[in-house]
């Protein structure tokens, strides 16, 4: 008989203030962890993309944006601000589909999401938009390195998350945009199942599962942009970029 897994504990880190460009994000998270009596060891820290982008200065004032002719055309068709559409186009490597007032984009990172991740909600000020980090994996690595240098010890995983829609399903779910200090996919192929049969296709998206679990505590109206998860195995190391499906094996592209 197999042993039941150990309990998993999730704690929303309290008291992180509204983040502004240039803020010391590791210091803010470290202070929040201390308030929650969290040591940032032997667990995973999930941080929402929005505060990472704000700290890194990925904030654009809409009045500084001059829409292109294509952005003006899309805005007139969708009934949206052409300046926001211009930012979407700038962040887009490929438009996958447009409709119902939404542009499904493949970002320059390789993510497929609504509006290339350009977001007006919870922006630092009215009339501003927040863009995705330039390199979420590098952002996760830098945050992990800073936390380890200050107060932590391995194993420590850092995951940057954001909410995505899903094909064929209503509702949003948090996914991992960047990771460091953990293997984002746990490949079980070749290992036996409960009955001893060899697994052929089982590769578990661990980083995405942790992001989704943390999302239960990261409500947009709750002001909890960081969640600590403990009781899980922190193994390996890898980035989210390496998890993106190769177009040659993508049946939906």
Brief account:
The chain has 253 residues and is α+β, with helices and mostly antiparallel strands. The protein has helices spanning 25-35, 49-55, 69-78, 82-90, 136-150, 206-215, and strands spanning 9-12, 41-48, 59-61, 92-99, 102-107, 112-114, 128-130, 153-166, 169-180, 186-187, 203-204, 226-230. Helix 1 (25-35) packs across helix 5 and helix 3 (69-78) packs across helix 4.
Compute the gyration radius: what is it? 19 Å
**How many structurally independent domains?**
2
Strand content: 25-35%
- What is the arithmetic mean of pLDDT? 90
| Global outline | globular
- What are the segments in which pLDDT stays under 50 over at least 5 consecutive residues? none
Q: What is the CATH superfamily of the largest domain? A: CofE-like
CATH topology of the largest domain: 60s Ribosomal Protein L30, Chain: A
Number of helical runs? 6
Which CATH architecture of the largest domain is right? 2-Layer Sandwich
Provide the CATH top-level class of the largest domain: Alpha Beta
Give the tally of β-strands. Answer: 12
How helical, in percent, are the residues? Answer: 10-25%
Whole-Å distance between the termini?
43 Å
Spatial strand order of the main sheet? 1-12-2-8-9
Note down, in words, how this protein is organized.
The protein has six helices and twelve strands. It has helices spanning 25-35, 49-55, 69-78, 82-90, 136-150, 206-215, and strands at residues 9-12, 41-48, 59-61, 92-99, 102-107, 112-114, 128-130, 153-166, 169-180, 186-187, 203-204, 226-230. It has a five-stranded mixed sheet with strand order 1-12-2-8-9. Strands 4-5-6 form a three-stranded antiparallel sheet. The model has no long low-confidence stretch (mean pLDDT 90).
